[in-house]
Amino acid sequence: MAGLEGLYQQIILDHSRERHGDGPLAGADGEHHEFNPTCGDEITLRVKLDPGHERIEQVAWEGDGCSISMASASVLTDLVQGRPVGEALATAETFREMLRSKGEGEPDEDVLGDAIAFHGVARYVMRIKCAMLGWVALEAAVAKAR
Amino acid sequence: MARETIDAMNHTDADSVGGRPVRDIRLDFPAFATTGDARPTAYLDSAATSQRPTAVLDAERDYLEHHLAAVHRGASAATGAATTRFEEARADVARFIGAGGREVVWAQNATDALNMVALGIADASAGIGGSAAARFALQPGDEIVLTEAEHHANLLPWQRVAQRTGARIVPVRVDEHGCWTVGDLAAVLTERTRVVAFAEVSNVTGQIAPVAEIAELAHRRGALVVLDACQSVPHRPVDFAAYGVDFAAFSAHKMLGPNGVGVLYGRDELLDALPPARTGGSTITKVTLEEAHFLPAPHRFEAGTQAVSQAVALGAAVRYLEAIGMEAVAAHEEAFAERVVAGIEAIEGMRIVGPPAGERRAGLVSVAVDGVHAHDVGQFLDEAGLVVRVGHHCAQPLHRALGITATTRASAHVYTTADEADRFVAAMGEVRGFFGVGRKVS
Questions:
Q1: Is the CB of B370 inside 8 Å of chain A's CB atoms?
Q2: Are B154 and B114 in contact (CB under 8 A)?
Q3: Are the C-beta atoms of B312 and B306 separated by less than 8 Å?
Q4: What is the ipTM of this complex?
Q5: Is B230 a catalytic residue?
Q6: What is the pTM assigned to this prediction?
């Protein structure tokens, strides 16, 4: 099952079981609930910004969904926590571009880090929304916080 | 189940249908033409939509190539011949379901047919249809009884009726298997019950409802009985007249027939009184600028140009199924479900929804896999060459009641083999290992 292992890379399976950022967040500045009606996956993602609203101090989320969506939210937490808001949103955009690549080209590991493991998702059009679930919630939560 | 029993099924019910080997039946279906693949795709999603035999495809093409004309319009011999074929298809369907010819109304699909009933009741409640339709009118506080297991198609139209009339929906709750009993349903019937709507066969649990018994209980309360027959008409013998139901709905594409046509069954005296939800050409006797008088059933409901070639092809599907015999089809599919349930029960971490092993179920099995989301299961099975359905199967309240978001469903039809059942079980046996649940991860 080479194809399947290209989709479910070990790093994704690991993050789907050991989820980073999974839990509530008291005193959040912004929160957003994102739902995928085609499969029922859902996530509520919360962000806490620094007083100047320039930096994401903390991210936390609670969700229910497939391994792709849950692992993606976990990797997201590692990537954006503590980062300037602008950089976090740019990372979200780079992640989106990778998923729209249809599996072509090389993803930018300097920007995406572990998230390049989701490169294989780009070849499964039905699963792109799963991988984007947390990131869409992040964009909306940040917009609400600012 | 003992291995010998499974083997016996393999060589009787599971591998032949009404005396015809499944491998022969499969030759009737172009979709199963051998492509030379060592492992051809196993199609286990017939509860969603079925494959079509050559006889059905040919019937539609023959009509379009040689007989196409405007039905029920004009005076030419060609329109007469086309009309005859269209109405012969209606007669085929009527015979198949135990109905009179006037009791078969063409709809787009079962969802459309259920909406026709519900919206007709809502219209009657608003005074449309005059005194004849008053028997359907609902008052605020009247009750619409339906089960928690219903497909959204047999829930949302009733929510709309409730919104429009002030009637309220009274649910029959399901147990931890997603099943309900006649007793559960009887317990919620009251003097205010006006409609009882339920599926003969659940598209998620495979539970088979005793329709006649429920119809009698409901009628004793003076309620209308509306049957979702989507998962029964394609898979087992039905007789709506003997059941005593007032309305029923099913789709052609689940019964080896084409897309785009379905059936609303109704007792003729009810159909003649129910306001047509859609109005327009071909439904009327007399029209003035102010008002219209409608034809008797079935034509009063068939506004505009109908799906004629599809209806003709549905007639061919009915004749194909009759030639095999619906008792045999049901036995074949129940053997599939029994085989799958026996196999899945032996795997750790599987939760089978629906009647427990040993109890009767129709030819479909839905499973929740502990620790693995249904969409991941579906992806894994796809890679193994198995076409199944994953998700909530348009039955969110049922899944919510069971505390799960989604299940993986394998379903059969006349062409499904015992080997395909075994491939499904074998692949399900590997799912949790692949995703690293149910074992120590080093």
A1: no
A2: yes
A3: no
A4: 0.88
A5: no
A6: 0.91
